[in-house]
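Batch 3, record 17
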Amino acid sequence: DVKVTQSSRYLVKRTGEKVFLECVQDMDHENMFWYRQDPGLGLRLIYFSYDVKMKEKGDIPEGYSVSREKKERFSLILESASTNQTSMYLCASKKLPSYEQYFGPGTRLTVT
Amino acid sequence: GEDVEQSLFLSVREGDSSVINCTYTDSSSTYLYWYKQEPGAGLQLLTYIFSNMDMKQDQRLTVLLNKKDKHLSLRIADTQTGDSAIYFCAESGPNQAGTALIFGKGTTLSVSS
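Prediction for the assembled complex:
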């Protein structure tokens, strides 16, 4: 079974802090994705990565950056957390040439 | 542009059938997906359909695809309280396997006993 894990289920941070959200997959998937999920807005793509050291902006990259130094790990970084980044963050991965994405359990981030 | 539309809420009684509808805009999408999200959890793939199919059945789930109208539906037979969740429709978009799926906003299914 594919397993996608995220470092925390719940996280509380203060405004202005630098925040790291980690995602790890154990199935040698090339592609990895970060989404945020907000009520009434569904899933919005923040960034995705084709492969190691490769990244592409999604629909809402402002205020975020990413890092993919190893194939199994994709990190989402909030350089200076703001209250409007309070959300559920979902990581996903997939193997080429499939379209099917496998999701982690999500990290609920609260910025106060 | 690409957009996937779903109604936001559906309420049914236990034992009834549920039908969740979705419309998409990209006719070149190769695959269309239904994902389920239970409270506090990530998304789980329920089923998918290839764009050259009209129907796919998998136990209690039936997926119908009308390519002409760009309409996708998910029917859940004999709906149970455990089916209460958010259901997301997603399309693969243009034929680029390296890109992200395009998700609808999700339909919250509430099943009452």
